[in-house]
Amino acid sequence: LVQHFLPEIGLRWLAAADLQQEVYRHLAAYVPRILCLGPSSSGGSSREGEELAYQLLLLAPLEWLLLREEPAAGLAQLQENNRPSPLCGHVFKVGEPTYSCRECAADPTCVLCMQCFLGSVHKEHRYRMTTSGGGGFCDCGDAEAWKRGPYCQKHTPTDRHTEEVRQLSVHLSDMVARGYSIFSIILKYAVDLLTCDQEEQLPAGLEPPERGDTYYCMLFNDEVHTYEQVIYTLQKAVNCSQKEAVSFATMVDRDGRKSVRYGDFQFCDQAKSVIVRNTSRQSKPLRVQVMHSSVVAHQCFALKALSWMGQIIQYSDGLRRILCQVGLQNGPEGENSSLVDRLMLNDSKMWKGARNIYHQLLMNSLLMDLKYKKIFAIQFAKNYRRLQTDFMEDDHERVVSVTSLSVQLFTVPTMARMLMVEQNLMTTIIRTFVDHLRHRDLQGRFQFDRYTAQQAFKFGRVQSLIGDLKYVLITRPSEWTNQLRLKFLEGLDAFLDLLKCMQGMDPVVRQVGQHIEMEPEWEAAFTLQMKLTHIISMIQEWCSTDEHVLIDAYRKCLSALSQCHCGLPDGEQPISLSLAGHTVDTFRYQVSQDKVSIHLPVCRLLAGLHVLLSRTELSSRVPEQLPLGELSPPLLIELPLRCLVLCAQVHAGMWRRNGFSLINQVSSNLYAGASMMDPNHFLMIVLSRFELFNIFNSADVRKRYREANKDVVQQNNTLIEEMLHLIIMVVGERYVAGVGQVEPFDEVRREIIHQLSIRPMAHSELVKALPENGNKETGLEGVIDIVASFKSPGVTGRGLYELRPEWNKNFNLYFHHYSRADQSKAEEAQRKLRRQKGEDTALPPPLPPPLCPLFGSLVNLLQCDVLLSVEGAVLQWAVESSGGGWTESMLQRVLHLVAMSLLEEQQQLENNRDDDVTFNYTYKITREAPSPSGSVLALLETLQKAPQLEVHKDMITWIIKMVANIKTMREQTASTSTVSVCPGHGAEETVRDRDKAERKRKAEMARLRREKIMAQMSEMQKHFINENKELFQQSLEELEASTSAAAETRVGRAEHRQLVTCILCQEEQEVRGHSRAMVLAAFVQRSTVLSKNRRHIVPDPERQEPLFMHPDLSLGIHTASCGHIMHAICWQRYFEAVQLKEQRRQQRLRGHTSYDVENGEFLCPLCECLSNTVIPLLPHSPDHRCTHSLSLPVSVNHPTLEAWLNTTNQQIATLHSAHRKQSDGQSPVNHLEDKLNPFSSSIREMITTFSVSTYKVGLKLNPNEQDPRVPVLSWSTCAYTIQSIERLLMEEEKPLFGSLPCRQDDCLSSLTRFSSACWTVAPLKTVHTHFIRLFTALFPDSQVENTPCILDTDMFHLLVYSVLSYSSVQSLDQSGCSVVDSAHLHLLHLVTVAHLVQILLTSTTGQYTHTHHSSVLSSGWQLWRCVKAGILPFLRAAALFFHYLNSTAPPADLLVAGPGHWEALCSFLSLPSNLLQVHQNQHTLLEPWCCHPGVRQTLQGGGVIVRFPRESNRLIELPEDYSVLINQASSFTCPRSGGDKSRAPTLCLVCGSMLCSQSYCCQTEVEGEDVGACTAHTFTCGAGVGLFLRVRESQVLFVAGKTKGSFYPPPYLDDYGETDQGLKRGNPLHLCQERYRKIERLWRQHGIAEVIGHAQEANQTLVAIDWQHL
Ligand SMILES: [Zn+2]
Ligand SMILES: [Zn+2]
Ligand SMILES: [Zn+2]
Ligand SMILES: [Zn+2]
Ligand SMILES: [Zn+2]
Ligand SMILES: [Zn+2]
Ligand SMILES: [Zn+2]
Predict the structure, then answer these.
(1) 489: nearest Cα among 421, 537, 535, 423
(2) Of the bound ligands, which one is closest to the alpha carbon of residue 1542?
(3) Which stretches of sequence are listed as region Disordered (predicted)?
(4) Is-contact 1572 1669, C-beta < 8 A?
(5) At residue 208, does pLDDT exceed 50?
(6) How far is the CA of 1582 from the centre of ligand 6 (A)?
(7) Residue 1126 pLDDT more than 80?
(8) How far is the CA of 155 from the centre of ligand 2 (A)?
(9) Ligand nearest 152 Cα, by number?
(10) Which ligand is nearest to the CA of 1551?
């Protein structure tokens, strides 16, 4: 039917006179019958049916119509003729990795997909890797996007591409017409449906034949309501379960809309009104529509049709172009009426899903072809204003708005320029931006302080326009046309209008009152200024490439500034200032009382352009074209100066306002102004603005100030410091190309030197400290290796750069980017360095680079009279030294200024030896007397002797020496040119000089001696600190490694009595059976670290039978201890106090602690280690028993196996009858009689405490002392802990004995002794029954049921359990201790034999799957080797067990690491070293073991077969390159929501599962609580403990239980030895094996919970995170 039907429809359509009518008729009939039938939550089968019908009845006819043949064949044919676009155009999914090349990308928005990247040249370059936020596409093949290597291997154009664009081949030529008409019809259909906001009506021709009363209640997405609100509302409105509501909410969030109810109109309308009512209280209600089902069906098909077209055009470039034409062709309405226009203009009305689909189609079609991309870009630019306005009104994120396509269009440089010229794009963007900021003050400036939340939200959105402007300007033109100049300057006009609205906005007036009620909104204005800073520098870059533009821009900027300034001095009183013989006219203005603003963007732009004039030397070449004469220097400096004074006053604490943080920025306007003014005038104005003029002008005023209150004095001191700093900046900061004669390279180098002068820094810290250019590059790479050496990181920490010593001389204490804190740190570091090298500690300024001519006159500031008088004044105060009138840092700045002046003079002398050097600072400071106490130099000499100025002495010495040097230089110059005029005077001076020199030499000697001693002392001190630092910094494991020696002595000590000290009361006590109990803090946890079967499902704890451990060790109980000992009673008191504190805390505030007190958790009072119980300390040998070493040879006193078996069997028989009697109702002898019990009641109580803890944790049950499983779990944790420690020692290749750290050693010995004693508190019958059952596992007995087969038993557990339970049996028999030991020996032998059989049985099966057994066990030798390897872990664990049980000394051979301890091990365990000998003697046992039905069943595949040796578990293998993981994660889809991308893909490091974390979709209920995927996973994979890698964040996550978790640095490092948590920097990351092994070791040591505990204690914010939702 189908085969006939399809071509038939196609043919009928072909014959039709009106194809559109015909197609519409078909769609009208079928679409509502196929799509969107009924509630969408219906089962899967109808979905499949829907999909099939849609394929056959809707798509296939279209394909037939287009191709006129079987679609598959037709498409293949098309593809053959396809000439794909050279552009890759791969559209990025959320979270997919993108790559950019720091060396070759035209701008940072140019990115490659992973495939293209791997096939490109850039993978050898310095690349950046980031994860995509979705949208955007691969720029491979776009020649404009890359300076080099624009094509990857796959997209390199071949001849086929370079050919002239052909028409479709003959075969396809008639398809053009068909394609054209089909695309027209379908695209129009889709656009009509998506853009109409009708709920009932369909476009003409699509009305359904029969119209039922079937509706959908459609819920739309918005960004106002939270998930929780939506879920809650839905549960109420449509009566669904929480789960359904979550699923609805997820879909709404993902697709933008979702039908939540299906039915007749009334039914849907009712739900709608409930939703609206419920969500309209606080905000605007959720958007809900009741839509007719046919409308929904057609919209649904419209989307599918768009996707279909997107797919079809992939097969043929011809069809792609046709679709572009169809889409861009203007409709009957003329301008802006093409289908694409209609889509764009209705963008904000569509729901998210629809937008995504049509955006994707645009990218696949229009943007893949330069010609159509251009047309589209023009349309986009034409509609720009309207699109942006729509975007402002809309509340969806920008990624789903069509406006986000700007990055695709504007970053293509030719396109951007074309749009600028033809569409005046730059002006449009700026004007649109300005129009959206409506709030203005009276002067027309922006006003942000009265923004409502709604307006603030819009302000957030309007900022994306600045982003667009940045794209347009990101690459500066290499060639200018007149048109471009015109439009750029027009844009600049608009930009200046914008800046004028910002200049002086948000002015502030100092509040003098005590309390400020409301902080004015300053953040918005500040954000705006920061964002525009980039644009300003881009505009400057553009100007720098063309002289005409630069000159015009300068003029425009200047006139903008004077417009801002007009009326500035109005109403301000003119005054005249005079100081040091100079007078200047200005006006009265006080920053502290009048309005001041920090926003001066016009000044900033002008300053930059002024520097450009200097750099390009335009100012000197064509001065006549420049309006330099119009500049009024005082005006130029006025506003920046006010701003700086404001900063200074903030520093001085005069502006007490919260959050007022300003970046201390020196505006280059000051340079410009100062260079054009008389230096004395400049300084006087500066003094006046700082409100300091009178202090320096009149001694009286100063005196008055001094006597004023302390706050005022201090404020003035700070202001003077700031003012001096400003002068240092203006004269000394020359590292800007154009101000000083430097290259950009020099600037970066200087920045780095000064950063590294503070301390060695990591790469990322340096990057953060350096300013970035438009391409986000700092230039760091080009310089760093010259000035610094790299120290690679160890296992912790990160790689650091250290300044090479030869660059220290470039250090400038008053580096302009230093904060005060930086400055003092750097000063300290530098002084220390000099002291260490035995140098003096003077930190004179480095030689500055020469100034450019335009700024050349700045140096005159240094020797102007006003400055000299200021210097003199400060020195004078220092000499008088009376009270708080001056500060050391004031003096330090003056000394710095003096030194700068001297350096300047020296340099000028050196450079022009012959000429008369006009700069004569030395003359001025020696001859002039600004103060009564003499010249500046004389003051300095006085100060040199002042005892209170020890710190500055070296600097003063340096200055005086320098003055002498310069004098000599001048004299030499003078003597060569002129004959010395006055020889006598000269001689006199030489004598004085000689005297002085002698004095100085002596002083110098003394200083050197003093310094040598100081240096020695500091060296010693340093040494001491270093040693201790190492001691403290040693991580726990290193400490642990160093204890092996200690452990040996402990073993030797074993025989002696044991004295311990309680950490709480500090009392010493001997550990004895009848004394007060001592306990060790301990932590018991479930563990799957040794598990060989992670799919094991934990059975219901009530029915769990723990007596036999399965050899897969799927779940064990691990005990650890920090080794700290307390009295039981002290601990109990401590724990009660903790509980009380917790109760009180909970009443006060609902906070959290890092430990769960209700679950018995506490922190060790000494080391804060997480603990949840205590282990009692028991004496080495219980009083009633004598010690025997297991290593004793089997002596004649010991019964043979047969004899022992007989005795034991008799005992068991006795027990059986005794038990029967008991159950017959006689009074039970339940416990060991008190007189027989070797332990005091307090010790017994603690034994019970620990037993019950293991029971509670191991089975997750409420404590129940009477449960017969209690002793089993105590034995279990002993066996499991020994086993896991044996594995650790093996893996780390440490010796079996003597290498354990004390705390583990203590833990194991007390754990073993406890387990051997725990039967004393249990009902005897219980322990006996256990022993009988364990014994029958070795000697099958028909009387006992449910004996497991030997393949289902872990032999070490069996050994431990039977040995420990045997004690209880033996206690009945008082015949002597030797029996106990021999019994242990017999049990060991029996279990060993059983294990051998187990190994042999499992090794012969499934050889092909197991590498250890891959070769057929052909020879006996091979078999022996295999058996030995298999049994070794068991023997080692047994040796540890008996060592701790009997406190025997281990053989010396086992105290050293290395292989080949087989003999020593066997002899320690009294086993023959040829184990098969033991085997031979017991062959009678083989039969019952092997004939157990379970053996056959397991070997035939009925159960988990575990082979021996069990390999130690490792964490999963991670790829070397992190991007592999990112890629893997980006293709990972949420397992619950049908192919949806996961937001937080997270990798389990234990088993390798990828999880969809931190998301509603994957929440699961665990123990009655909804938890996220990670937490849920830990319960199946890690018994509550988990290690994950959050792939998008590049962060390791540790989770324990539901409430605990912490983050841990990932094992991935960049080339600079740093991790990149959050993937912010994007450097390539590679696996660091060492760090990964460290994490693995933590896991194997069961240390995760402890790490989390410590992390949470250290950082309280971690406690508040809802870890269970991850
Ligand atoms: Zn690509
Ligand atoms: Zn490519
Ligand atoms: Zn490159
Ligand atoms: Zn105590
Ligand atoms: Zn401790
Ligand atoms: Zn896992
Ligand atoms: Zn999910």
Answers:
(1) 421
(2) 7
(3) 826-845, 976-999
(4) yes
(5) yes
(6) 7
(7) yes
(8) 5
(9) 2
(10) 6
Instruction: Compute the distance between CA of residue 1328 and CA of residue 1231 in angstroms, rounded to an integer.
Output: 11
End-to-end CA distance of the chain: 53
Residue 17 burial (CB count, 10 A): 6
- Centre of ligand 2 from the C-alpha of residue 13, in Å: 40
pLDDT at 1016: 57
- Whether the per-residue pLDDT at 1476 is higher than 90: the answer is no
pLDDT score recorded for residue 1438: 93
Token output for 70: 């079987």
Q: In what order do the strands lie in the sheet with 1595-1600?
A: 1554-1556, 1545-1548, 1585-1590, 1595-1600, 1604-1608
Q: Is the pLDDT of residue 1117 over 90?
A: yes
User: How remote is the CA of residue 112 from the centroid of ligand 2, in Å?
Assistant: 7
CA–CA separation, 573 and 586 (whole Å): 8
pLDDT of residue 931: 53
Least distant ligand from the CA of 1555: 7
Confidence band of 1546 (pLDDT split at 50, 70, 90): very high
Distance 1566 CA to ligand 7 centre (A): 16
Distance 1590 CA to ligand 7 centre (A): 14
| Closest C-alpha to 827, from 724, 697, 975, 951 | 951
Span 965-970, mean pLDDT?
A: 85
Cα(279) to centroid(ligand 7), Å: 26
Single-letter amino acid code for the residue at 282? Q
Residue 1629 alpha carbon to ligand 6 centre in Å? 24
Residue 1564 and residue 698: Cα distance in Å, rounded? Answer: 80
Cα 1135 to averaged position of ligand 5 atoms, centre (Å): 14
What is the spatial distance between Cα 237 and Cα 242, in angstroms, rounded to a whole number? 12
Strand pairing report for 800-803 and 1630-1631: unpaired
Rounded distance from Cα 109 to ligand 3 centre (Å): 14
Residue 1193, pLDDT > 50, answer no
* Residues ≥6 apart with Cβ < 8 Å to 745: 779, 782, 783
What sign does the CA torsion over 1644, 1649, 1650, 1655 have?
positive
The ligand placed nearest to the CA atom of residue 145 is: 3
The answer to whether the CB of 1259 falls within 8 A of the CB of 1105 is no
How many angstroms separate the alpha carbon of residue 1118 from the centre of ligand 5? 17
Q: Are 1316 and 1072 in contact (CB under 8 A)?
A: no
Half-sphere exposure of 579 (CA within 13 A, CB side): 29
Ligand 7 centroid from CA 1602, angstroms: 19
- Contact in structure between 608 and 540 (CB atoms under 8 Å): yes
Q: In the 8-state DSSP scheme, what is residue 1623?
A: S
Question: Which residues have beta carbons under 5 A from ligand 1 (an ion)?
Answer: 88, 90, 113, 116, 138, 140
pLDDT value, residue 1588: 95
Which ligand minimizes its atom distance to the CA of 154?
2
- % of the chain with per-residue pLDDT over 90: 19
Q: Cα–Cα distances in Å, from 440 out to 393, 433, 443, 444, 523?
A: 21, 14, 8, 5, 16
Separation of CA 1128 and ligand 4 centre (Å): 7
pLDDT category at 1036 given cuts 50, 70, 90 is very low
Tell me, in angstroms, the distance from the centre of ligand 2 to residue 86's CA. 8
Residues lining ion ligand 7 (Cβ < 5 A) are: 1534, 1536, 1556, 1559, 1561-1562
Where does the pLDDT of residue 103 fall: very low under 50, low under 70, confident under 90, or very high at 90 and above? confident
User: What does the block give as tokens for 1628?
Assistant: 């390539």
Q: Measured in angstroms, how far is the CA atom of residue 161 from the centroid of ligand 7?
A: 43
283 versus 165: which is more confidently predicted?
Answer: 283
Q: Which of 1106, 1053, 1130 shows the shortest CA–CA distance to 1275?
A: 1106
Q: Which tokens is 1367 given?
A: 């004690």
Specify the pTM.
Answer: 0.76
Q: With residue 576 as reference, give the H or E element that holds it.
A: strand 574-579
The pLDDT tens digits for 490-522 are 999 999 999 988 887 777 766 554 444 444 556
Read off the tokens for 1341: 């007995």
